[in-house]
Design a protein that fits this description.
The protein is of the alpha+beta class and 106 residues long. The chain contains four helices and four strands; from the N terminus they run αααββαββ. The two termini are 32 Å apart.
Length: 106
């Protein structure tokens, strides 16, 4: 189990699906699924109940989600404090540039 796998799992849980999480993280759906399956295999527990029309975390998935959120927050905090970063927020910034009448988003 590593930080990247936990981040993927948290995104799948929050996006309520693999496709939405894969788009949010700019990963293929199969990559996201592989990481969640690896977590399930390592823990020996199903974390997500999937059907064609339904998605929900299992009881074990809910437990892992709570721990994963805490772990990811502590991971970021450790990087900030030990790394000497003074920025106290995280987020995504979208920039729009106007060039020849077109708007480009980065």
């Amino acid at each position: 189990m590593d930080i990247h796998q936990l981040q993927i799992f948290v995104n799948v849980a929050e996006c309520k699906g693999f496709l939405a999480a894969s788009k949010k993280m700019h990963l293929s759906q199969s990559t996201v699924s592989t990481h969640v399956s690896a977590l399930e295999h390592e823990l020996g527990k199903k974390l997500i109940r999937r059907t064609a029309r339904n998605f929900e975390l299992t009881e074990d998935g809910v437990k892992l989600y709570k721990y994963a959120v805490d772990i990811l927050l502590l991971h970021r905090k450790a990087i900030m404090e030990v790394g000497g970063m003074e920025v106290s927020f995280f987020g995504l910034v979208h920039l729009l540039f106007r060039h020849s009448g077109l708007f480009l988003q980065y």
